[in-house]
Specification:
This protein has two domains: 80 residues, Helix Hairpins; 144 residues, 2-Layer Sandwich (Heat Shock Protein 90). The chain is of the alpha+beta class and 250 residues long. The chain has a five-stranded mixed β-sheet, covered by helices on one side. Bound molecules: adenosine-5'-triphosphate (ATP) and magnesium ion. Magnesium ion binds next to helix 4.
Length: 250
Amino acid sequence: MERTGTRSRGEDVSFLAAEEKREFLSRLLARMAHEIRNPLSSLDIHVQLVEEDLLKLSQPVPSKVIGRFDVIRGELRRLDTIVEQFLRLASPSSLKLETVALSEIVTHVTELLKPEAEARKISFKTQISGSLPSIRADRAQLTQALLNVLINALQAVEKEGRIEVHARRLKSKWLEVAIQDSGPGIPIEKKGAIFEPYFSTKRDGSGIGLWIAQQIALAHGGDILVSDAPSGGAVFTFVLRIDDAEGADG
Ligand SMILES: Nc1ncnc2c1ncn2[C@@H]1O[C@H](COP(=O)(O)OP(=O)(O)OP(=O)(O)O)[C@@H](O)[C@H]1O
Ligand SMILES: [Mg+2]
């Protein structure tokens, strides 16, 4: 596979400035998450109180109203999960490290997205070369990082194309998971920007998927690189360090 080897942060004018920006953003996110959480829990309590008040009325509560409350509660829960994820991300020390079989995570995320790929007539191939050693990693966060990149690949291909996921051990202490798609690829002038928070070319994109994925990879002592597929699509490569006390995960 031909690679141009463009390194996301290698294109920054100053690497130090980028690191400082990341730290600043981490602190900002943590603060924002805390501040959102307070009104959120107050909203949650008040929604519950209003529901109780309604039940006390002499008339039965219309099903339309019950349905609306379900939506509100569902959305409140969703917001709470997002805030929780941000809080965990903001502090890399909060990684819940365990011995993880990378092949299991790769299989899990590809299984999750297979129905969507099938519906879009996108062929989805996973290749795991040899038996990969286990790594010390946060299973939930690594799953999230891979999902963010795979969802981007699905969105880039749109329909009737290919996505290939290839996990393998590099020489020495590194593993890589490469996700290659047959989408339009990433124009060279955008390569430096795609990992920046809030950079998006999509109508409904929030532009934080890749930023989050990269923060997770960096917190694990790894990184994500972007390059061009020979066919013109994009290749996102996670590079992760193998733990010293490694074991084969078969
Ligand atoms: N596989 C890909 N092929 C082509 N362009 C891509 C690919 N992955 C990411 N990009 C570009 O990088 C941008 C940033 O991606 P990122 O995942 O951070 O945000 P997003 O997908 O726009 O929104 P979201 O926060 O919902 O993920 C995208 O808007 C798109 O322009
Ligand atoms: Mg995305």
